[in-house]
Please model this.
Amino acid sequence: MSINQAFKALSDPTRRKILDLLKEKDLTAGEIANQFQMTKPSISHHLSLLKQADLVRDEREGQHIYYSLNTTVFQDLLKWVLQFQQLPEGKDHHE
Model:
């Protein structure tokens, strides 16, 4: 997982909304696209970037491809962010 790719993917509000939708349940690209006022190719591009960042996974079931969150990457990101809470004494404020 590239932290840079993950943060780049998270920087876009549309991709964050897609992640919010996938938090509820796995969805197909069509179901995701129905939640937005944009073309299916645009949604496909956002899903591709989320997949490249390893934030979502896709799995084919018959004619459909279902997208789901990859919670492992979120745990890794959270671990990385939380390490800054444990700075040595005197490093957490300006003099």
In short: The domain at 3-72 is CATH 1.10.10.10 (Arc Repressor Mutant, subunit A). The helical segments are 3-10, 13-24, 29-33, 40-52, 71-82. The first strand starts at residue 27 and ends at 28.
